[in-house]
């Protein structure tokens, strides 16, 4: 399951004592970190006036620089790049280290950027790309599934790479555009040093000497970056501060320039004269597991979907910053179906469907966790309105994450990344993935997916994937979609272009960030 880097977004309540201790602790930590030097980059910067270093505050520490099956894009996107990348909409695939590509159902051929070097000075070329692709398939169970139709990788020449296929690979490019598809120096891979001393091709390099383990990560401008004019800062500092109160206090006091925040702090951010950038990361929805048991009647599933009011969840949990979706795929993604209208809240119609089903006594246990309580309580009340008895089993986030899909529960409300491809979604939710813990067979979906994979061209494949979305909707196998937003509060006098990629939690588009002053 693709889960958010920070886990569920909390609603934190301030206490003056904790707030004072937190801000003093943060100032001390930043002061100690600053003793290691934060002005070196400005002194090295070229031009009449050096660009300032931008200081981030985030609530997650750096464990290592591994890219496979990790949720560390806050850090890894600072130093690494992939063959392709996601545009800010989280759906459009755009050039990265590959300036163009050609895709058929038998191969994908990439034309690479020329004159690119890794941070350790190793030339970026087709051989380096092949080595990375081979590592992905060999070392990551997830990539093994994504590359199930890949038969081989070929360095055609120095600037061209060919991925050979035995069939369609619809999720290959979308996943190569994510952080798990970043390209690492082959020298670092051979030496086994990349997880501690990263060497990518990104605009910033890891400055280990000026970083402080468990506290501060420093990225200095890469002086051999292929597009130096695009770098808008004199360097990046990322400070680990595990408390939203302390993060906002440090930002307000000028100790930070950008800080992770939450919906509950939006008013304080505004009062303090700070900017707030928000973007959708993951997507919550009601995942129905037991569609052959307690949720076997389609009319009951449809009634549940209609009785749900995701806008209420979004408002209660995220203070109006979340949007409701009517289908799993966003517009622009393969699988999006403009004819699917979803299940807008309609209690009258929901009750009618329950009546048509014979007003059965439906009861089930919903696993949930402390921070999700507002959504869970609303869901329970909405189900009670149509005669469905939902018992909440409250637990911590850590407990929830280990049991929600163990086969015990008929449904769960949780999130996954909104940029997962239609094929990823099918494999996870309706095939043999973790999102189908009761191993329910969905032959109608299997058939349409087989047709999509065997499609002779992109248009035919798009039609088939859109049909999959329609079946999921008509059968009410999934519904109640609403965004989990993420927030960056920032000093408007110090930075601009504070942009992130929709559906990619915790990652700033560092190459677009501009320091002011």
TrEMBL record:
Q: Is Membrane given among the entry's keywords? A: no
- Positions of the Solute-binding protein family domain: 92-436
The places in or outside the cell where this protein is found are: Cell envelope
Q: Report the superkingdom from the record.
A: Bacteria
Q: Name one GO biological process term.
A: peptide transport
Per the record, what is one GO cellular component?
Answer: ATP-binding cassette (ABC) transporter complex
UniProt keywords, alphabetically:
Signal, Transferase, Transport
* GO MF term list: peptide transmembrane transporter activity; transferase activity
Predominant location: other
In terms of Pfam families, this protein maps to: SBP_bac_5
Task: State the family it belongs to.
Answer: Belongs to the bacterial solute-binding protein 5 family.
What is the name of this protein? Glycosyl transferase
Question: Per the UniProt entry, what species is this protein from, by scientific name?
Answer: Sinosporangium siamense
What lineage is on file? Bacteria, Bacillati, Actinomycetota, Actinomycetes, Streptosporangiales
């Amino acid at each position: 399951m693709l889960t958010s880097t920070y886990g569920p977004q909390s609603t934190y309540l301030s206490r003056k004592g904790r707030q004072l201790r937190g801000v003093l602790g943060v100032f001390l930590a930043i002061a100690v970190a600053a003793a290691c030097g934060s002005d070196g980059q400005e002194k090295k910067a070229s031009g009449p006036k050096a660009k300032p270093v931008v200081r981030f505050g985030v609530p997650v520490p750096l464990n290592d620089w591994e890219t496979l099956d990790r949720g560390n894009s806050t850090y890894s996107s600072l130093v690494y790049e992939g063959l392709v990348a996601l545009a800010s909409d989280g759906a459009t695939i755009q050039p990265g280290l590959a300036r163009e590509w050609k895709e058929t159902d038998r191969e994908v051929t990439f034309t690479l950027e020329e004159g690119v070097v890794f941070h350790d000075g190793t030339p970026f070329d087709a051989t380096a790309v092949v080595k990375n692709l081979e590592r992905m398939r060999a070392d990551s169970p997830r990539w093994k599934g994504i590359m199930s139709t890949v038969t081989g990788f070929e360095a055609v020449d120095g600037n061209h790479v060919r991925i050979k296929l035995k069939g369609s690979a619809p999720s290959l490019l979308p996943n190569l555009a994510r952080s798990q598809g970043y390209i690492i120096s082959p020298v670092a891979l051979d030496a086994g040093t990349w997880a501690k001393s990263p060497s990518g091709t990104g605009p910033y390099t890891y400055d280990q000497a000026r970083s402080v383990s468990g506290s501060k990560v420093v990225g200095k401008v890469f002086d051999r970056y292929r597009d130096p004019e695009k770098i808008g800062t004199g360097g990046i500092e990322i400070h680990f501060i595990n408390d939203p109160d302390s993060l906002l206090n440090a930002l307000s006091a000028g100790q930070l320039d950008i800080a992770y925040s939450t919906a509950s702090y939006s008013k304080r951010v505004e009062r303090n004269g700070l900017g707030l950038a928000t973007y959708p990361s993951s997507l919550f929805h009601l995942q129905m597991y037991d569609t052959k048991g307690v949720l076997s009647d389609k009319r009951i599933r449809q009634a549940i979907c209609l009785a749900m009011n995701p806008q209420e969840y979004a408002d209660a949990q995220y203070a109006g910053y979340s949007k409701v979706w009517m289908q799993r795929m966003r517009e622009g993604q393969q699988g999006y179906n403009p004819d699917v209208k979803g299940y807008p809240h309609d209690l009258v119609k929901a009750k009618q469907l329950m009546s048509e089903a014979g007003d059965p006594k439906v009861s089930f246990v919903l696993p949930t966790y402390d921070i999700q309580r507002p959504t869970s309580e609303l869901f329970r009340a909405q189900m009670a309105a149509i005669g469905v008895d939902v018992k909440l089993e409250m637990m911590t986030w850590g407990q929830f994450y280990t049991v929600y899909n163990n086969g015990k529960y008929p449904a769960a409300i949780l999130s996954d990344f909104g940029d997962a491809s239609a094929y990823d979604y099918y494999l996870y939710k309706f095939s043999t993935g973790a999102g189908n813990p009761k191993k329910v067979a969905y032959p109608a979906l299997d058939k349409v997916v087989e047709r999509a994979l065997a499609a002779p061209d992109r248009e035919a494949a798009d039609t088939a994937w859109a049909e999959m979305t329609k079946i999921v909707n008509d059968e009410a196998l999934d519904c109640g979609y609403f965004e989990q937003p993420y927030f960056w509060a920032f000093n408007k006098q110090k930075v601009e272009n504070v942009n992130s990629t929709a559906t990619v939690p915790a990652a700033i588009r560092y190459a677009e960030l501009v320091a002011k002053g």
